[in-house]
Amino acid sequence: MTENGQNRGYIARDRDRQPDAYTPGYKTSVKRSPQAALLSFPTTLSEETSPVFGHGLIGKLDNDLIHNYAKPGESAIGPRIIVYGRLLDETGRGVPGALLEFWQANAGGRYRHKKEGYIAPLDPNFGGCGRLITGEDGSYEFRTIQPGPYPWPNGPNEWRPAHIHFSVFGHGFAQRLITQMYFEGDPLIPLCPIVGVLKSQQAIDDLTAPLDMNRTLPMDARAYKFDIVLRGRRQTYFENRREGL
Amino acid sequence: MVQKLEYLKESPSQTAGPYVHIGCMPNFSGIEIYGGSDLGRSMKTGPVKGEEITVTGIVHDGMGTPLRDAMIEIWQADAAGLYASANETRGKADPNFTGWGRSPGDPETGEFVFETVKPGRVPFRDGRLMAPHATLWIVARGINIGLQTRMYFEDEAEANAEDPILTRIEHQSRVPTLLARKTGEGAYRFDIHLQGPDETIFFDF
């Protein structure tokens, strides 16, 4: 807004690193992709502001999918895992106070959703959603069970790799992002047309969480690390200087 | 070798998929959790300032078929043109208005609804006022990266005529795709077309 660098907006999205809209291998994208070019503008206040979600929003079990839908004393069935990481922006700063929401299928690959008809059964103790607000350094952590792969009607024999969906708010609406996390070593990753919309092995690797034995809790839960990067805010060296200094 | 530029790269986007509501609107999808209410269903937490309006619309695919599995988010200023955001430095926004809403669309018709207020004007980067508008963000199965657009209002012709973004659009014939139609007292219609002859303008902000 001003010339002295108070507000320089957000770093432009690198569309070469992001999937295109039209990716015919993922069939639904064919009729849901705009054909005209996107219209480019620098961010304004409308994109540089974003809703605020307080820590008060979050219930005690919101980040524990093993228990947040389970009957008292019971827990979800499946491989117990911890997913942790940091929410960063492109300048490497942690993004604190940001809302993360995540959802997934159960251990058998079944989603708790009316439109889902896969024969694998629901787990009565598993809902499949969680949320949290990132800490002061952008860090986060939640507990869940490792989701199973599931079949979907795209090609005649298509199976999604095990994955967890993430919805992420930053500090500006321009940073709004939805993505998916995959698990290290899953042989379905290179076969998947949704993974296939990504343009490079690097992009696939950026969404693949490694097993972290150091963070694994012995006799309890394995751990996977997943860092998420949002668009960076343009800054100048002088940004934090008070006026007159 | 020159010095190294140390930047990270934004995480790649992936589709929200058909079950986005499990994560973002679980109560809507039948999962009773979080005290029974979904985030963003209400943009008002008490009596709000300004003109209260209802915006309805449908997201259509390239065949004209309504999307019945989309999630639409709205982000806008209050009636005075202030954002309920930590980054708002120009004043304090209406404490009873969140500025942010989320609509799943009707499972049968695909129609989304926002009960909101008519936004006030917000300055562009150079200080000129933009016309009243709301930012919309659309995700769904088949959409690989969330689509960003804006909703302006057809009954703000004077402000629209000087809006720094609307006036810079080369194909002026497409501007109406960004205008909500007034359908009654406090009621607006804003349909979105992902593809085809009526294709909505989407932005790369």
Give a quick summary of the entry.
Chain A has 245 residues and is mainly β. In chain A, 4% of the residues lie in helices and 23% in strands. Chain A has two helices and twelve strands; from the N terminus they run βαββββββββαβββ.
What is the CATH superfamily of chain A?
Answer: Aromatic compound dioxygenase
Percent of residues in β-strands of chain A: 15-25%
Mean of the pLDDT scores of chain B?
Answer: 97
Spans of chain B with pLDDT under 50 lasting ≥5 residues? Answer: none
Uncertain runs of chain A are: 1-5, 238-245
- Note the quaternary state here: heterodimer
CA-CA gap between termini of chain B: 33 Å
The largest contact between protein chains, plus residue counts on each side, is: A-B, 86 and 81 residues
Largest beta-sheet details of chain A: 5 strands, mixed
How are the strands of the biggest sheet of chain B laid out side by side?
4-3-6-7-8-9-1-5
Please bin the fraction of helical residues of chain A.
under 10%
Count of helical stretches of chain B: 2
In total, the number of domains of chain B comes to 1
Q: What is the 3D form of chain A? A: globular
- Cα-atom radius of gyration of chain A: 20 Å
CATH names the topology of chain A as Protocatechuate 3,4-Dioxygenase, subunit A
Structural class of chain A: mainly beta
